[in-house]
């Protein structure tokens, strides 16, 4: 299995631009998670899905952030408009059922200038 | 509020020294406990996990962790560290959802 695949690996853009991060979970995994990692706040859960349905989005920092999972093999995290404080590494993770560990993607390093 | 605390932000050790990284949590009910490792430039990898049973859990690369329920702790240990253990270590606790500690950066000097 290829593991959790995220794209792009790096993204540099100017503030105000729309940013879309993509994730392909491991095939057969029912849960998908989006995390943000910063030096100041560490690793934070933003949102997670179960069977393509958003279950908990309480970690989404503000309305500029949105996430979708149109099917079992694809999810996006969108920031519009982006701001410099959104600069971070964004991780996607998936797991197949409760009580199993999550498998993480390589992350997307996002820099907003 | 539910939280996960890692006591040390940065630990510096020489090779062959023993390691113990602290992790405490504030959840009241049944929890699953994890340690993840992030090597420089790489993604998070699972080091070990505890769900139930023997509170002393052995993971990969010689790491182990002990769950002490009365202390709400899940400390990570390794008897003798190597330079290749230089990485960031995250404790995580799952009850309703997953919460991570702030991470501990370990630097092992050769």
Radius of gyration of chain A: 13 Å
- Category by helix and strand content of chain B: mainly beta
> For the report, how would you describe the main beta sheet of chain B?
6 strands, mixed
What's the quaternary structure here? heterodimer
Number of separate strands of chain A: 11
Termini Cα gap of chain A: 36 Å
Count of discrete alpha- or pi-helical segments spanning 4 or more residues of chain A: 0
Number of strands of chain B: 12
Give helix and strand order of chain B, one letter per element, not per position.
EEEEEEEEEEEE
Number of helices of chain B: 0
Structural class of chain A: mainly beta
Shape of chain B: globular
Major interchain interface with per-chain residue totals: A-B, 19 and 18 residues
Measured distance between first and last alpha carbons of chain B? 40 Å
Provide a compact summary of the structure.
The complex is a heterodimer of chains A (113) and B (110). Chain A has 113 residues and is mainly β.
């Amino acid at each position: 299995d290829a593991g959790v695949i995220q794209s792009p690996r790096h993204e540099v853009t100017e503030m105000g631009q729309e940013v879309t991060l993509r994730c392909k979970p491991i095939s057969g995994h029912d849960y998908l998670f989006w995390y943000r990692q910063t030096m100041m706040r560490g690793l934070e859960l933003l949102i997670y899905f179960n069977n393509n349905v958003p279950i908990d989005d309480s970690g989404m920092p503000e309305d500029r952030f949105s996430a979708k999972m149109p099917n079992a093999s694809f999810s996006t995290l969108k920031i519009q408009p982006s701001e410099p404080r959104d600069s971070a590494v964004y991780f996607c993770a998936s797991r197949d059922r409760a009580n199993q560990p999550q498998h993480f993607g390589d992350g997307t390093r996002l820099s907003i200038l | 509020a539910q939280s996960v605390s890692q006591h040390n932000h940065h630990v510096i050790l020489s090779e062959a020294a023993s390691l113990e990284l602290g992790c405490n949590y504030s959840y009241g009910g049944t929890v699953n406990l994890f340690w993840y490792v992030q090597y420089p430039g790489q993604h998070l990898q699972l080091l070990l996990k505890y769900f139930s049973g023997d509170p002393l859990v052995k993971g990969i690369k010689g790491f182990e962790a002990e769950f002490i329920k009365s202390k709400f702790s899940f400390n990570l240990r390794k008897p003798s560290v190597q330079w290749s253990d230089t990485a960031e270590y995250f404790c995580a606790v799952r009850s309703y959802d997953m919460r991570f500690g702030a991470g501990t950066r370990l630097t092992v000097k050769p």
